Amino acid sequence: MIELVSAERCIQCDICVAACPDNVFDAVKDGVPVIARQDDCQTCFLCELFCPVDALYVSPLIDAIEGRSEADLAASGLLGSFRREMGWKNAKPYGTGADLSYRMFESGAIVP
Amino acid sequence: MAQAVPIETAPADVIVVGGGPAGCWAAWNARASGASVILIDKGYVGTSGAMAAGNNTTIDTARGTKERDFTVNQRINRGLGLVRRPLLESVLDRARINLDLLAQWGYAFPVDDDGRPYRGMLRGPDCLRFMRQRLIKAGVRVIDHCPAEELLLTQDGAVAGVCARYRNGRGLLEVRSAAVVLATGGCAFLSGAIGTNNLTGDGYLMAAEAGTTLASMEFSGQYGIAPSFSGVTKGIVYFWATFSEADGHEIVLPGDRQSVAKYLMKGPVFAILDKVSPRLQEGFRKGQPNIFVPFDRAGIDPFRERFQITLRHEGTVRGTGGIVIDERAATSVPGLFAAGDAVAREGMSGATSGGGGPNASWALATGSWAGEDAAAYARHVGAHQVSRPVRPSRVRPVEDGNSRKAEIKQVIEHIKSETLPLDRGFFRSEDSLNRNAMQLDALWKDETWRRPGDAYDAARIREAEALIATARWVTASALLRRESRGVHRRTDAPASDPALTTRIVSGGLDKPWATYDLMRDQAVRAAS
Ligand SMILES: Cc1cc2nc3c(=O)[nH]c(=O)nc-3n(C[C@H](O)[C@H](O)[C@H](O)COP(=O)(O)OP(=O)(O)OC[C@H]3O[C@@H](n4cnc5c(N)ncnc54)[C@H](O)[C@@H]3O)c2cc1C
Ligand code: SF4
Ligand code: SF4
To answer: Residue A75: pLDDT above 90?
Structure first.
């Protein structure tokens, strides 16, 4: 579930408010978006892809709260880790061509 | 408080409901055929739906080649008697034309070690973002965060628009159109499987209210393996896994890895991805980060450590049930078309899951056909469309100002308890199904929870209604099919009965019904 909107990092662009498929955030006038409906989060990590400054953290736990501190998350390199691995930057994909999934089919054991 | 008057917006020739791959390709093809198009989604076009949250393996083979024949024969075998070769071939042909278009538009397909573009994998968020830009540039009007709740009908029952509800509190939106395409995806009963939260069967309910039927709803006992803490049901990695019970005792699963269900009913089950070569580990990590980011964050190395797993219901998202269409994408209701997971696709996938290739190809092909045919229908209706009087297809609820979020949540939890547990959705029997039918019937007839306090409640109530209706068609169809076949497993009839190699159609709202589609059997036989 979504657990963090970092007030320190957030530039208030509201992209996450628009891009979240489950309408989890509410925009705040002159402020950082709030997690208004945490229960509705589907743990898809996609808001992290769109955030230009790695201000969001989605915990992998779907029905429990992890409660890790922002300092801990930043220190362990987890803020933005999904975005980096996907090759997104400034809400745009740059990693599409680097997808090596085709190796799954190399042995011929699985054919789509 | 009285029901707010809906906002009306300029009409369009074609409204596409749902912006996953099927809806995006429907919108593109309707627009390319000259229609004005609105694409409306419950979430955000680009992140919502089953494809957005994952990668879609697709089938990229040319007719008549060895590769095509292999895939087609494999599908026919796995489909257990329900796959129709001509349909399968034409779906794969059409899907390939779309892949050609993507290439022509400059989509960044990966390149394999031999330097050839690899088009058999569409990365969900990347590909849908690409489509979104393409559609907006082509003049499609995209409306996000606005779930469609009902279809508007003409006096003689043709579909003439939709009524939707903005999620941001701006109220209802009515849009008139000559044709509507339903591309609302499947229904996973809010199991928590990644990407499925918005897939609550809304399209089935809207279509049934307008008068269409459904088919193959019993082929919905599809579950995906996920780590027990996570919703990531990307099952392909488990091909390279070893499974074990709590004491470390290895579980051997010949064939279908979903048969882990038997062990899960007895106790905890663990997996380790110990058969993945270092080269493939890199391939997976660079291909599908959303499988590994959860492990990284949970501090687990899945290639070296055992982790507990579970099965999550995927219903008709990776099962095969849905709205009945003709050989392209028309429903039996004039002006109503449907595509993708919203549609019954036993002719393509048979009685087993169409994940891992067939589903994506199906969404690409039927989406395209739906868009083209909806545009042609709109031309046929012509300017006359805006002057047609319309009526809603249901009684609209009135909000009274007192939030009932908790009460409605309870109803949804009740529906989940009837559909998700392994001894309900995975293994079925006459007893369990009758119990299901009774509970769901009582929920459907109960009006007390259908009193929205606010817009949030109203949207959730509509989803709950769709979930119940869907579960009732599943139950009626599963009761009728007294055998086991593919992802329909009857513990009281574990074998397949060759005499039942016929699809089941279902429908009805207050009185759900199901029956074998013998007429279609005759038509198929006559055609071949
Ligand atoms: C984890 C996972 C992995 C998968 N992997 C593969 C694979 O490798 N290969 C493969 O072929 N298939 C795969 N599939 C299946 C594939 O993703 C689907 O078949 C495909 O996404 C179907 O496309 P669609 O457009 O019909 O539906 P979706 O992509 O599910 O889109 C439906 C859209 O409709 C919207 N919607 C729903 N209700 C409403 C409403 N009331 N009003 C407005 N909008 C609404 C939703 O918000 C959503 O955007 C996978 C599925 C899952 C869950
Ligand atoms: S996308 Fe990131 S920077 Fe923009 S509002 Fe959301 S959290 Fe803040
Ligand atoms: S993880 Fe997905 S559902 Fe949750 S807040 Fe982020 S985008 Fe929304």
So the answer is: yes
